[in-house]
Specification:
about 350 residues; alpha/beta; Serine Threonine Protein Phosphatase 5, Tetratricopeptide repeat; Rossmann fold; five-stranded mixed beta sheet; 13 helices; 5 strands; about 50% helix; disordered N terminus
């Protein structure tokens, strides 16, 4: 079909040049040089050139396994930027063929459409179950429900996504705990049409999701902001039986939201017999600024709506409130290819 391209269709001139470089300079030096050129082309939004160079590397006998893995990963990104979904799917499927070790995509660093492709391909390969296996516990954290009071209650609605995202990031610091990323849960809701009309996930749906992905427990959170006070509430549900393992409420000043989420994370870990000290918590890339967190949370909500330019602007706004907010910077950078 005119205008289409597969991961094995490249410009003959560029491909010949890349292969010549790979064979003339020597395997290690050549592949590093071509890989650097390909990554530079991708970062400069020269996606056609990037695709040609990465494809040359995947087809070269001189390229190492790690170089081919990197090339297939970037091919997925480049095809996604060009809205070539089937080609992106082919690149991700080829990448997963190199397992083990297992390839995990980080939703903070990948364009959302590529994450959806990854979840599709991963599910076709392995099914829905992502349980850590052995002694590793798996927990899913659902978006929080906003019960705030007052005329500005709606201003805090984006924290529904932001609080869950922050808690997932923090609890992911434990080596004994696998925390399901919220993007996978959003994908599963859409995939199985489990989203309610209200947009909220009830306990029975949360348990069903937990069973599908192999989680032992699901946390259903809520929050209330009343003047300067914040109340974080949680119900931790055991997937196997549906019983409540933990009913916790953390209270404090709304400006101390980072510390409140830290406390809730530690309490939740204890309820499932996982040791999680504050020194083990992730979150070094998070912010202590409430304004920055609200802007970041608004960005997450816009990502769910596939409004990438508006989401990018919100992540940039978060950086204006807190220039050291590393997670907002990473998210913004992940969206740049979608804006060209």
């Amino acid at each position: 079909m005119p205008g289409t391209r597969t991961i094995h269709t490249v410009s003959s001139a560029l491909l010949a040049a890349a292969i010549l470089l790979l064979t003339a300079v020597g395997p290690a030096g050549a592949q590093d040089d071509v890989l650097d050129q390909a990554i530079s082309a991708y970062q400069s939004a020269e996606f056609d050139r990037a695709i040609e160079l990465f494809t040359a590397l995947t087809e070269s006998d001189a390229a190492s396994v790690e170089t081919k893995r990197t090339s297939y990963h970037y091919l997925g990104r480049a095809y996604t930027a060009k809205h070539m979904d089937e080609e992106a799917r082919g690149a991700v499927a080829s990448l997963l063929e190199f397992e083990p070790p297992r390839t995990e995509f980080d939703p903070d660093m990948e364009p959302p459409p590529l994450m959806n492709v990854y979840y599709d391909v991963r599910t076709e390969k392995d099914g829905y179950d992502i349980g850590g296996g052995g002694q590793i516990q798996t927990i899913a954290i659902i978006d929080f429900t906003n019960g705030s009071i007052g005329s500005n209650a709606a201003d805090y609605e984006p924290l529904s996504q932001g609080l869950a995202s922050m808690m997932i990031n923090m609890m992911g610091g434990s080596l004994d705990l696998k925390v399901v990323e919220r993007e996978r849960l959003r994908w599963l809701l859409d995939e199985l049409d489990l989203q309610s009309e209200s947009g909220r996930v009830d306990q029975s749906t949360a348990v069903r999701m937990g069973k599908l992905i192999g989680a032992q427990s699901v946390l259903i959170g809520s929050f209330i902001v009343n003047d300067d006070d914040m109340y974080l509430g949680s119900r931790l549900v055991k997937v196997e039986t549906g019983e409540i393992l933990l009913g916790e409420q953390i209270t404090g000043d709304v400006d101390d939201v980072f510390e409140l989420v830290q406390d809730l994370s530690v309490q939740t870990a204890r309820a499932i017999n996982v040791t999680l000290e504050e020194s083990d918590l992730g979150g070094a890339d998070e912010t202590r600024s409430l304004d920055a967190m609200i802007s970041y949370s608004e960005g997450l909500a816009l990502l769910d709506q596939e409004s990438y330019q508006a989401a990018f602007n919100k992540f940039q706004e978060a950086l204006e409130y807190d220039p050291e907010y590393a997670r907002a910077r990473t998210r913004a950078e992940s969206l740049r290819p979608m804006l060209n």
